[in-house]
TrEMBL record:
Name the UniProt record assigns to this protein: Dipeptide epimerase
Binding site for substrate: 24, 135, 160, 295, 297, 320, 322
Family recorded in the similarity comment: Belongs to the mandelate racemase/muconate lactonizing enzyme family.
Top-level taxon: Bacteria
Pfam families: MR_MLE_C, MR_MLE_N
GO terms for MF: metal ion binding; racemase and epimerase activity, acting on amino acids and derivatives
Catalytic site positions: 162 (proton acceptor), 267 (proton acceptor)
Gene3D superfamilies, A to Z: Enolase-like C-terminal domain, Enolase-like, N-terminal domain
Amino acid sequence: MKITDIVCEKRTVSLKRPFKTAVRTVETIEVMDVRLQTEDGNEGLGSATATLQVTGDSLDGMIAAVEGPIKDALLYEDMNKRNDLLLKLEKSCINNSNAKAAVDIAIHDAFGKQCNLPVYRLLGGERDVLETDMTVSINDPATMQDEAVARVEEGFDVLKLKVGHEEKEDFQRLLKVKEAVGDNVRLRLDANQGWNGKQAVHFINRLEKEDINVEFIEQPVPAHDLKALKYVRDHVHLPIMADESVFSPSEVLRLVEMECVDYVNIKLMKAGGLRRAGQIADICESAGIPCMIGSMMESTVSGTAAVHLAMAHPNIKIYDLDAPLWMKDEGLKGGMSYEGREVTVTDLPGLGFY
Ligand SMILES: [Mg+2]
């Protein structure tokens, strides 16, 4: 079963409300959809979002990678040698993890349709219902308080808050949110590399003295500074999660070796697709490190692929899958769906879009 064509399409998706972090405000996202055609007339759908600030991938750069070296490597190759095909994709060009993720997702969707199986089943899982957290944008404390209450009323019992900047303001926001939502709502804090080692330890030690229900701290220090990550983990009690420090399986091996984290956040856009995301989860499983599946601000297509992987991998135990909830209607049918904090997918073949 040969691949006969790979076609890219651009689209822009608007968010229902602006997504604000301390460094940027996102109101629309730029998406590249990939349609991979096979000789039996099937079509696999994949997508990726431009994330210049995180992976360095731009919309035009992703399209150039897919229509250039990736297409050269995969055209007329056999779909049935799926692992071989995915390795060819990985080796087709350097970096470009978002472009590779889109094509990896399209290969899985097409292969699922060919086998008449949903992707979660191809990957060894069963259909399930996952519970996601919800991010509250950075704003003044009163606005964040209102937003946190609104999200809890919608059914979310775990909120993700961005920290990592002015300590005083971070604490004001945290205390306001805690005051509004109470102790039953757990908080996940993401510093997005905002501190150095000492600042992180100072903040987290102070946090540990407050009566706030915090589950973990994500990426307290710059991505490359694994010594600082280890320093933080060794000097605080709260669990530490790596996000930007882990793109690839080889990077996660180093983190395991240095014992610098308690959890790892896997994203398909960083890993380059389902195959390598699964490898990261495998390495972490061997090391006794549970994984979270998260995403960038990305479309429902790649979000759905992340849900399929999460249902299939026993070491993916924490779910940060709210991004598609931020999107205005993308005009897609099938795929992932939400009910409050609960996320599931259809049992249709592939990713389940129709
Ligand atoms: Mg993060």
